[in-house]
Amino acid sequence: MPSLSIMVESRAMPDAKFYCWSCGNEQIFDVKVGIKVGRRDSCPHCAADLHVCKNCKQWDPAIHNQCREPEAAFIRDREESNFCAHFDFKSGEGPQKDAGVETAKAKLNDLFKNLK
Length: 116
Fold this sequence. Notes:
Elements: H1 4-11, E1 18-19, E2 26-27, H2 99-112
């Protein structure tokens, strides 16, 4: 069994970053250990709810019920706050830009640049 100090170190994630599912801005928390997001907490940048499926580590739109937790109840709206007991705020990289969208916008701008 690992010692308590190792367990505490593995839980402490000083370099973990948390992002809003809606606007993609980083969420700054005073405490980095054991992040608890309440049901009514919202993003200070865009006012989107934070306790939502799309901010959870378990959320996976490619699987049944869109949740990796088999015991989780069905949530109708994945973008509204909910009472899910399995919620765990996902950390990691910021939102990834879709290169296809940027390419499409550039092509449209090139196509209509002479109309201005």
